[in-house]
Amino acid sequence: MEKTGLVFLPSPIVGHLISAVELAKGLLDKQPCSSITVLLMHLHIPSMKDATTTASYIQSIAASHPRIHFIDLPLVDFPFENTNSPVGFLSLFIDKHKSYVKEAIKSTSSSSSTPATALIIDLFSTTMIDVGKELGIPTYLYFTSGADLLSLMLYLPTLDVKAPCEFKDYQGEVEVPGMLPLPPLVMPDPLMNKKSDGYEWFVYHGRRFRETNGIIVNTFEELEPTTLKSIDMEELRLVFLPIPVVGHLKSTVELAKRLLEKQPCFSISVLLMHLSTPFKESTIESYVQSVAASNPRIHFVHLPLVDFPFENNQGAEAFISLFVEKHESHVKEALKTTPSNSSSPPTRVSALIMDLFSTTIIHIGKELGIPTYLYFTAGAATLGLMLHLPTLHVKIPCEFKDFQGGVEVPGMLPLPPTAMPEPVMNKKKDGYEWFLYHGRRFREADGLIVNTFAELEPTVIKSIANGECLPDYHPTPPVYPVGPLLALNKKLHDPETSQLMEWLDQQPHSSVVFLCFGSMGSFSAPQLKEMALGLERSGHHFLWSLRCRSSMDTNLKEILPDGFFDRTKGRGLVLQSWAPQVDILAHAAVGGFVSHCGWNSSLESIWFGVPMLAWPLYAEQKLNAFQLVRDYGLAVELSLDYEKDGWVSAEELEKGVRCLMGDSEVGQKVRKRAEEMAEASKKALAQGEEETREMEETGLVFLPSPGVGHLISAVELAKRLLDRQPCFSITVLLMHPYIPSLKSPTAATTSYVKSVAVSSLNIRFIDLPLLDLPFENNQDPVTSFYLFTEKNKSYVKEAIKRTSSSSSSSSSSSPPTRIAALIMDLFLTTMIDVGKELSIPTYIYFPSSANLLALMLYLPTLHVKVPCEFKDSQGEVEVPGMLPLPPLVMPDPVMNKKSDGYGWFVHHGRRFRETDGLIVNTFAELEPTTLKSITNGECLSDHHPTPPVFPVGPLLALDNKSQEPHTSQLMMEWLDQQPHSPVVFLCFGSMGSFSVPQLKEMALGLELSGHRFLWSLQCHSSIDTDLDKILPDGFLDRTKGRGLVLESWVPQAEILGHVAVGGFVSHCGWNSTMESIWFGVLIFSWPSYAEQKLNAFQLVQDYGLTVELSVDFDKDGWVSAEELEKGVRCLMGESEKGQKVRKRAKVMAKAMA
């Protein structure tokens, strides 16, 4: 074995030193060939006597552990007065040792045959991370305290922003992921004064922890499970690509902030494209700087400038689309690297979220294997129109302005042609072509994120989600309404703003109408004069943010009518500077908003419950205005003359303001509606609406193997998903092999399907046609099954298409169901091709253990590594994440490499990687190391990326009632008469039958054990049904009262759940195993077939949940009476082994609950 050299750098505190040396000793126990070097820093404080305790400890360790070497670093002169806290002193003191540490590591490596392979530093030594980087040595942090403090320190940079005040002044409790809410007073002392350098150093260390190659913590999983789980969550990197327009950038950053609130482990990178040489004082630059300062987890990456000239005849849509396209190589490069302003190690990019006008490079995500989402900064109505535009392009060949009647878009009222967005009003212009282009490409995204909420645009969102906006009801990517996303926390305190707010403070409640038209909303001098006259005549108070088209006209007295300011003095205020729109709309004095109906402005007005007077100017604002007036009832309509460049007369403005602000019926309705929608917008934000898509009917198609056990497990998964997301529609496709001896599907399957169909209305079953497939006598059953499933391909494809084109609803007018996933059984990998062909995400449901999944994934590698039969293999079989396996515990199908069964196991193992995910009926506490190895790609050759793994267990059919009510009643009455936990239950699954000699041996073993028993007995021979003939003479009489033997099917879950049952002699089928663990019943393992030997091995050797039974596999799995007697006594008695298993069973049952 290769020698490894580890260098430890503990802090010069005896407690930290001892803990670090204990870690070193633990590592040496596991890897004796390691060499440990401990670098010692010494505090030189004249007032302190020699640290005799430390010196004595070091001498004793050096004498007893020759592989641990200590090196004294030179003393450094560092006055304690340089800092006002112990943490600050210690951190600066350690930092002064950098050069000595570097030199010591170099000399250790050069003077020894064992080079330094890792540097392990103390939690207060993070400045030494730089040394590790410089020397190219992996650096690990040893955290001598618990995971809770580690979690707090990791989260502290985020808390520093979230809780800007002192913790002692914080209202409420402090929330840290994975921990109970903390009362402020329990925070560590160094954090209780944010002005101290101790606090600053805690924040500093917390930031730098993430730069290490790993964090070693002095704790254990059972003590701090939730905290460790929260820390161990992979840091996921989300990359945003907004277009270089300040409104789109701000909205994108608000989305990033919202996601960080929901999931603090995210790391956000925002890629910035620049239209020209970056200018330091620009609006964008100052905004970026402020966000970066206040949000440490949001990093901005400046992409290189591209040379892209703006042509005079080019529309804005064409320019921005082509401009984005020119950045393709830079975006691709940025996705491959770490953010330049982050010193963290690279993190996996989980998603690319790009602006709606960035579809020219949407293919980058697919090339790099990164899910790509479009963020739509406008409303769902505009999204619906753009998705439907390719269809309208064919339906309406003429210009929209020449179209007779309203333009119909699913989910929207018919649109007057004049309400269509400006870029689509001239089909000969490139703006129209680019709208068409983007609308077509939206469907390529993995999801559409929209800045809206369901209560505002319910019918449009539903129509989009159900595919009505695309031709032929083409599946639409998932739709996520995440709004309202608003930058509400920007407060300005410049003198001019302060004067404006003071003026508003003097106005009556809801008396002021506010006029503001966005950054591009300017007017001609004649229109401004007309507006002034309208405001004056309305008689209402007003605040007007005024912009003139001509930069020459800056004198308001010359622009506006003579005497206007004198006549409106006191009730009107006109601003030529930028107005803080959010602050104004939030003010109690503001009761109306004359707006251009830009989407952000509309959402802000809705949020604050301010009714609008709609004056659209450009882009999609006419469409927004139409929806706000006609559909949402949130705005009063203003008559614009589009023949005269959108002219509005003074009379029209006067009338609109009076309607909006007065007591007219229309005004009152709009005000009431605005109040309702303000409340709904806040409710949407509070509920985190982005996590659900309640408006959409989403279909999941399940395809289980034709066997009642696999079917029941698959349906339990479906029920679990319905519990989490009730809007799902579940379709289960049932394959039926035609076997001449069976007239129809088995009675057990039919009965079960009927009971589920009655009790679960959201689950429907579709019977696929019976297949007349003759099975050849010499053909392996596994091959016959594969050919059977292959023949079902066309029927499965057709059934999915029918499910997609129809609704599960009884209403014929209901929209079609979007098939979001095809979930198939582990043995149906041939159906992966169907999912690919129909562009449906495909998942494997693995109803067995993670261990079997790991083995099947690794089998193609083992096929090469172990060319002989496993039974002839020298030594044990090694599979990542599992204990070494004795060859005899390998599953039956892989024990003969010449058989078809082995070939098909290898085939399935190879194809699992093609799916979109692997769903496993297990849970993390039961199989932690195996799950980790699968997830990390260790089970695939060359660590090939494994599809996402979802442990969803335990999935148990605990409500499955007995098919023999009379027998069940007698059995439960018998159990009720037994004491607590004395009964051992014997059951071996639907295929677990035995020969008559073995049954006689089992009976003798049970009788000799002296314990009570309940035995579900199945004989190999269907002829032998008389128990008196099968079992030893007099057995039933001698065990009467303490034993019950049943030949009929038994309700296993009911029995295991009974308090009288204390042990379970089981075949170790996975479902039976999970049920036994769930009820905390001890298992006595008697594996029979398939993968049960593997399950039994893991349950005994790895999980400690069963007592082992000696089975003679050379004699067809024979178990003697003596062996069974001994096992039952061990399981049910007071043996040390039995007690250990009982204790472990209780722990695991609790973990399952």
Tell me what the structure shows:
- α6 packs across α8 (225-232), α18 (525-538) packs across α24 and α31 packs across α33 (928-935).
- The protein starts with a strand and ends with a helix.
- It is built from 42 helices and 32 strands.
- The chain is globular, with a radius of gyration of 36 Å.
- The strands form 5 sheets. Strands 9-8-7-10-11-12-13 form a 7-stranded parallel β-sheet, sandwiched between helices. A 7-stranded parallel β-sheet has the order 22-21-20-23-24-25-26, with helices on both faces. A 6-stranded parallel β-sheet has the order 3-2-1-4-5-6, with helices on both faces.
- The longest helix has 23 residues, at 665-687.
- Helix content is 40%, strand content 14%.
- Mean pLDDT is 83; it is low at 277-281, 340-346, 689-696, 740-745 and 807-815.
- By secondary structure, the chain is α/β, with parallel strands linked by helices.
- It has 7 domains: 4-143, Rossmann fold; 147-231, no CATH class; 234-376, 3-Layer(aba) Sandwich (Rossmann fold); 380-481, Glycogen Phosphorylase B (Rossmann fold); 495-676, 3-Layer(aba) Sandwich (Rossmann fold); 698-951, Glycogen Phosphorylase B (Rossmann fold), CATH 3.40.50.2000; 965-1152, Glycogen Phosphorylase B (Rossmann fold), CATH 3.40.50.
- α9 (246-262) links the parallel β7 and β8 (266-272).
- It holds the Pfam family UDPGT.
- One of its GO terms (molecular function) is UDP-glucosyltransferase activity.
- This is UDP-glycosyltransferase 71K2.
